[in-house]
């Protein structure tokens, strides 16, 4: 039985999806008290996200639950993450991308965790289980926020619990709206969504189809893009018998008819099986971003402040990255070592990433199965074979960047952030496909494997980490003592592996709690206190 919180928490999180849960983990593992309010039960089969990318899984590793997510994989970690373009499941193959999204198990020098094809509802189960074990976090489901107000030193809200029809008040130092595209908290702070609404209309269908994986000759894959004039769309497995189907190019005036959905699947696949529809939902693809992510002590994260087409697997992953960036900064403020500029940096840093990723998602959305169809593509003739070859070549050129995304998910950086020390050099353009590690401020710290089999990331601390290749400086320990006096959590490591020193340009590099680089140099500055105040947002 749910009960209302007995004590006012430091942070209230509205929304218990992956973003809200990530915030609770980031805060809870730092012993920050928080309450999650969720208006629903968070149950169902809605497909939503299915790719947990390498960067997100690195956060799971940092939280200590990457192995739990690995074990929860419904299809098994060795299931091939191929994406197959075909006319239909029963038809011709046009093109395939193997190891899409970098899901293949095994060690890669560029990252500590590979991606994973796993439905969002399973990801949420793993995250909820971990949150439940954090003593400083409480979750309340079936609880809706009615009203929010702010004072100089706190946020107050009124909430309603549906299970017992009771209303209660709650106060906290901060409140975070992770409550999705129809965010109540966004409305409360007066932020608006701007951009392009209605790029396309879409339906998601989740269904059971025992034997479907053996009813075609295209081999195992995580997605099949079906290119035909009858019912083009995406289809793929979610677990052993459960599949998703998303027709593309749906007319904006079309009304979804659940009763005819099984016939639509049969028409699209060309395979006649007793399909059992489990759930369906309708959604509109848009490119929208909030006018503001913050109003004093209230913040927005995830779909509450940015929406884009789901092509490229960025949505849930980008929201979790929001939670990481915001979570450690709020914790730092509450613990007394994070200044006001640290909180201000959240929107400055994340908005530029959102614009980058949203533009990429719109590019991917621009070429769907509907645009790839040409008459004669399914003909069993020499002309038909030549057409399939030509379309396959077009797919390879136009869709590679959608499934080879490492340059985006690891290569984005925080430019012009008030809490990162600028080295006053221009950044090279981001390569959307190829990721080239860089130790420049704002970039993700280059990854490496240690000789003992551990990841370099495993040796970073919960706070800042100083990577040092020259321990002879007499000022290093004075610097660490100064950080301790200022209450800033700091750890120093000195890797001996020669390959690591080649990845970092300078003798000294400061890594933030989120594994992005805050500063680098060959010597400490003459005023180290100023450096520490800069990277913690105190000046």
Explain what the structure shows.
The chain has 539 residues and is of the alpha/beta class. It is built from 14 helices and 23 strands. An 8-stranded mixed sheet has the order 5-4-13-14-15-12-16-19, sandwiched between helices. Helix 1 (18-28) packs parallel to helix 4 and helix 7 runs antiparallel to helix 8. The longest helix has 26 residues, at 340-365.
Write the layout of secondary structure elements.
Elements: E1 11-14, H1 18-28, E2 34-37, E3 51-52, H2 54-63, H3 66-71, E4 83-86, E5 93-97, E6 116-117, H4 120-132, E7 137-140, E8 143-150, E9 155-161, E10 166-172, E11 174-177, H5 184-188, E12 193-208, E13 223-226, E14 233-237, E15 242-247, H6 261-269, E16 276-290, E17 294-295, E18 298-300, E19 306-307, H7 315-334, H8 340-365, H9 369-372, H10 382-403, H11 406-409, E20 464-468, H12 475-485, E21 490-493, H13 498-503, E22 508-511, E23 517-521, H14 528-535
Parallel strand pairs: 1-2, 1-11, 2-7, 4-13, 11-18, 20-21
Antiparallel strand pairs: 3-6, 4-5, 8-9, 9-10, 12-15, 12-16, 13-14, 14-15, 16-19, 17-18, 20-22, 22-23
Helix pairs in contact: 1-4, 1-7, 7-8
Q: Give the strand order, joined by hyphens, for the main sheet.
A: 5-4-13-14-15-12-16-19
Assign the CATH topology of the domain at 11-70 and 118-192 and 290-363: FAD/NAD(P)-binding domain
Strand content: 15-25%
**Treating each run of at least 4 consecutive H or I residues as one helix, how many helices?**
14
- Total number of strands: 23
**Largest sheet, described in full?**
8 strands, mixed
- In CATH, the architecture of the domain at 11-70 and 118-192 and 290-363 is 3-Layer(bba) Sandwich
Which term fits the overall shape? Answer: globular
Q: What is the C-alpha radius of gyration, as a whole number of Å?
A: 24 Å
CATH superfamily of the domain at 11-70 and 118-192 and 290-363: FAD/NAD(P)-binding domain
- Class of the domain at 11-70 and 118-192 and 290-363 in CATH? Alpha Beta
- Name the poorly predicted regions: none
Secondary-structure class: alpha/beta
User: Kindly, what is the distance between the CA atoms of the first and last residues, rounded to a whole number of angstroms?
Assistant: 46 Å
Mean pLDDT over the residues: 93
Helix content: 25-40%
């Amino acid at each position: 039985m749910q009960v209302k919180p007995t004590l006012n928490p430091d942070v209230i999180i509205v929304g218990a999806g992956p973003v809200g849960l990530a915030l609770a983990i980031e805060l809870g593992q730092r012993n920050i008290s928080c309450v999650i309010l969720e208006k629903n039960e968070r149950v169902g089969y809605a497909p939503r996200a299915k790719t947990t990318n390498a960067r997100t899984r690195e956060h799971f590793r940092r939280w200590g639950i990457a192995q739990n997510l690995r074990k929860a994989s419904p299809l098994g970690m060795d299931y091939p993450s191929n994406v197959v373009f075909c006319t239909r499941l029963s038809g011709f193959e046009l093109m395939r991308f193997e190891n899409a999204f970098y899901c293949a198990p095994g060690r890669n020098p560029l990252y500590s965790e590979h991606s994973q094809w796993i439905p969002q509802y399973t990801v949420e189960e793993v995250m909820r289980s971990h949150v439940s074990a954090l003593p400083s976090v409480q979750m309340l489901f079936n609880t809706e926020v009615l009203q929010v107000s702010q004072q100089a030193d706190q946020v107050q809200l009124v909430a309603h619990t549906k299970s017992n029809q009771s209303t209660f008040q709650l106060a906290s130092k901060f409140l975070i709206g992770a409550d999705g595209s129809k965010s109540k908290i966004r409305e409360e702070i007066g932020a608006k969504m701007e951009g392009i609404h209605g790029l396309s209309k879409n339906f998601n269908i989740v269904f059971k189809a025992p034997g479907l994986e053996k009813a075609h000759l295209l081999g195992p894959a995580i997605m099949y893009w079906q290119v035909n004039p009858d019912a083009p769309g995406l289809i793929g497995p979610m677990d052993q018998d459960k599949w998703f189907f998303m027709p593309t190019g749906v007319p904006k005036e079309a009304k979804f008819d659940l009763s005819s959905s099984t016939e639509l699947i049969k028409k699209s696949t060309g395979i006649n099986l007793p399909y059992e529809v489990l759930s369906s939902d309708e959604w509109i693809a848009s490119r929208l971003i909030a006018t503001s992510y913050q109003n004093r002590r209230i913040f927005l994260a995830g779909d509450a402040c940015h929406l884009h087409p789901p092509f490229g697997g960025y949505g849930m992953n980008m929201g979790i990255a929001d939670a990481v960036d915001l979570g450690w900064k709020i914790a730092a403020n509450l613990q007394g070592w994070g200044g006001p500029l640290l909180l201000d940096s959240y929107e400055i840093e994340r908005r530029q990433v959102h614009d980058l990723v949203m533009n990429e998602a719109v590019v991917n959305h621009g070429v769907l199965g509907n645009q790839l169809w040409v008459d004669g593509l399914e003909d069993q003739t020499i002309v038909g074979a030549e057409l399939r070859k030509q379309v396959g070549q077009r797919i390879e050129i136009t869709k590679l960047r959608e499934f080879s995304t490492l340059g985006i998910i690891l290569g984005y950086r925080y430019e012009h952030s008030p809490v990162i020390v600028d080295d006053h050099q221009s950044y090279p353009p981001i390569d959307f496909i190829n990721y080239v590690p860089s130790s420049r401020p704002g970039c993700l710290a280059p990854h490496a494997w240690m000789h003992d089999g551990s990841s370099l990331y495993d040796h970073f601390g919960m706070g800042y980490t100083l990577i040092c290749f020259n321990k002879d400086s007499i000022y290093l320990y004075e610097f660490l003592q100064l950080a301790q006096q200022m209450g800033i959590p700091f750890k120093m490591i000195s890797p001996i592996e020669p390959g690591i020193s080649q990845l970092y340009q300078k003798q000294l590099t400061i890594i933030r709690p989120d594994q992005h680089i805050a500063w680098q140099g060959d010597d400490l500055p003459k005023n180290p206190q100023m450096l520490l105040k800069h990277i913690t947002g105190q000046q």
